[in-house]
Amino acid sequence: MKENHYNKIPLLPSYFVKFVLLKEELAINNYREVFELISTQQENFENDRIKIILINNIELEQTNQWVQFFRRDLVFNQFLNLSLDYFIKGTDIFVIQRRGFYIYGKDFFFFPNKYWDNIRDNDDSIDVINLDREEELTIEKEYLILTLRSPGIHQQYIIPETNYYVLKINVELENLPEDLQRYIGWSDILEDRELAARNRDPINFFQHTANQIESGAFGRIAIPEKYKPHNRGISAHLLENVIVPVSYYTKSTGNERWDRIICAWLNSSIGLLIRFNARVVLGSASERLNGEQINQLYYPNINKIDDENIEIINNLFNNLINQSPLPPLEEHWIET
């Protein structure tokens, strides 16, 4: 057996890194005391001038978002002191946990799109128009499903109203209505690499896309994966017969009443603090929370909430919904 030369590299010993938060400006009259505290302190320490947190190097290497080490005590200690008997992790309550659907050819499957605008939303169909071709078509809702689009479009509404549709074709093309066949024929001229697979095998392409949509996410709670607190007004959507694309995760407890409570919690002040503490900060002021991180958050144990408090929560939640469009999350703190 070949010797792995990497085994010869000695492991670095475990050590602690000190994170220091100064609560007052460093000045000639206090720098010696500050230096002495930083040099000698061997455990977490805090007074009215300084806060020192010791973090093990192994824990430090698991994240590049070091700011979380300063805020986690504030959030989690206050939260956990409430009593964990009243809270439960998402892994124990969600029976539906899915990411939104992913499809190729967004400017073909979504309405409206880059080429076609919705001009009328009828009971059983929508009318779309292509201004460049001066052509109008009617697409039956039998082949359409209401959907959200990118999170930025719906970021101020807990229950988003949407006029976006996604096309779902799971029948033989020759059996489709005439206008829909004309629409598919129009797409033949598109120089869209995402539609190349359709040209090779159109039957399986449409069926595969329909399967993606059907398996894609019919949970009642939709949580965007990425968001920007400085312009996003809500933390989670409550869905009503709407599906979501891949930029969202959807969750459901399997109980409509409980889903409302969970969505209210995610949009509450404490829920937002818990979410912010778990997030990963990206560039351009964006933040991310993936499906597993959402599952690991704490949620109210519904079985511990009596009917009177459920009614109070519902009334508060309805008031919040009725305030839509909501201001950015950062302004929520100012208003409260």
Report on the architecture of this protein.
The protein has 336 residues and is of the alpha+beta class. The chain folds into 3 domains: 1-62, no CATH class; 91-98 and 218-335, no CATH class; 103-216, no CATH class. Helices cover 33% and strands 20% of the residues. The protein has 12 helices and 18 strands. The protein has helices at 31-40, 57-60, 68-80, 106-109, 178-186, 196-200, 202-216, 256-266, 269-278, 291-296, 307-322, 329-335; strands at residues 16-22, 45-46, 50-56, 87-89, 96-99, 110-111, 117-121, 125-130, 135-140, 144-146, 165-167, 221-224, 226-227, 237-238, 248-252, 280-281, 287-288, 298-300. Helix 3 (68-80) crosses helix 9 (269-278). The longest helix has 16 residues, at 307-322. It is elongated. The model is unreliable at 1-12 (pLDDT under 50).
User: What is the radius of gyration?
Assistant: 26 Å
Determine the strand fraction and express it as a percent band. 15-25%
Multimeric organization = single chain
Biggest sheet record: 4 strands, antiparallel
Helix tally? 12
Overall, the morphology is elongated
Low-confidence stretches: 1-12
Termini separation: 66 Å
Helix content: 25-40%
Walk across the major sheet and give the strand order.
Answer: 5-15-12-14
Please tally the β strands and state the result.
18
Number of structural domains: 3
Report the mean per-residue pLDDT as an integer: 79
Name the helix and strand elements from N-terminus to C-terminus, one letter apiece. Answer: EHEEHHEEHEEEEEEHHHEEEEHHEEHEHH
What structural class is derived from the secondary structure elements? alpha+beta
